[in-house]
Amino acid sequence: MSQKQYNPIGVFDSGYGGLTVLKEIVKELPEYDYLYLGDNARAPYGSRSFEEVYDLTLECVKQLFDKGCHLVILACNTASAKALRNIQQKDLPIIAPNKRVLGVIRPTTELVGNYSKTKHIGVLGTVGTVLSQSYPIEIAKFFPDVKVFQEACPLWVPMVENNEYENPESDSIIKQHIDNLMSRSPKIDTIILGCTHYPLLTNKIKKFLPQNVTLLSQGEIVAKGLVDYMRRHPKMEANCSKNKSMEFFTTGDTANFDIHAGKFFGKQIKSKHLNF
Ligand code: DGL
User: Fold this and answer.
1) Which tens digits make up the pLDDT trace of 121-149?
2) 33 close to ligand 1 (CB < 6 Angstrom)
3) Hey, which CATH number is domain 106-218, 1.10.533.10, 3.40.50.720, 3.40.50.1860, 1.20.1250.20?
4) Nearest Cα residue to 29 out of 4, 5, 9, 7
5) How do residues 213-232 score in pLDDT, each as one tens digit?
6) Ligand 1 pocket, residue 189 CB under 6 Å
7) Nearest protein CA to atom 2 of ligand 1, as residue
């Protein structure tokens, strides 16, 4: 009996946040196989140094390659900001010249200017993403007239990873950061959730935002970007297998992961543990 081709699309995040991206990708491109890896045991990445984020991300990308992925999406802004360029330019040509790794910042910055009338855009992200200046630098390439205002929210990822975001105490932490951001420019009319964990906080964030402000989460944008990428790269597209499967790996606790991921996909998830 011939073996089915199994070359899933790899989706990586430091923890649960990338599930917000995977969900939208699967909606747009349901025919493919997907392999999700959450490095929950070592999250958060947001406060780690450039070198640490790069080392951890590369290790996870290699795991995904070993498991058959030809294409890996870094569904993590921090990893996209701090590790993607090095992996693409330095590592891939040596370890896997025919494989590809894509990030989430570029597809977001290509479009964001179209959403704003005032041309004042806010970015909420991890300390690592904000300090990297990736958003202001990339947005300036596509929309030079846009002004970018950033706010780092260091407690938000731990809140999501530890499932503490429904607690009433989380409200004041969320409000504080929204107020900080809006005080930098009351003209902000569009805010990027520049961390894939943050869409889980959408309802709370909206409570503290003026109604005219558009909140952009990246899932849909990245998913549409991937549809376009597949169209433009038929060879890669043919290399990704299509059996409609989803597999989940976590470096953390599988029982916790299954509860989180199950909520996302509305069905039971059985993740596997990955040890480094
Ligand atoms: N979801 C990751 C991001 O988009 C969170 C990084 C972290 O672990 O702090 O940046």
Assistant:
1) 999 999 999 999 999 999 999 999 999 99
2) no
3) 3.40.50.1860
4) 9
5) 999 999 999 999 999 999 99
6) no
7) 76
